[in-house]
Amino acid sequence: MNTQQFLQSFKALQSEVKELKTLQQRVLLFLENHSGSKAEIPLLIEERVSVKETCQILRCSEVTLWKLRKDGTLPYTRHKRTIRFKKIDILNYLNQKR
Fold first, then answer.
1. How confident is the model at residue 84, as a pLDDT?
2. How far is it, in rounded angstroms, from Cα 77 to Cα 11?
3. What's the pLDDT at 42?
């Protein structure tokens, strides 16, 4: 890798970091504006959703979601036979995917 390629890669990385910071600020503003108080923000973040809701958010099939679950990409919890995903984990996965 020569110097010019390195600089291009570095600039691309800087651009991605800026986009990530912007997205993070937008999410925080959204959470502040759409919750009655700051005490409700942890509740929103800890909210758990079903497999079908997660598939809708990710726009994927249940088979794809199963694969994400099995390879450890998307954390989940299981209570008896019910599988739930934290919304924050889904948002983190979407951010990493970009």
1. 94
2. 39
3. 58
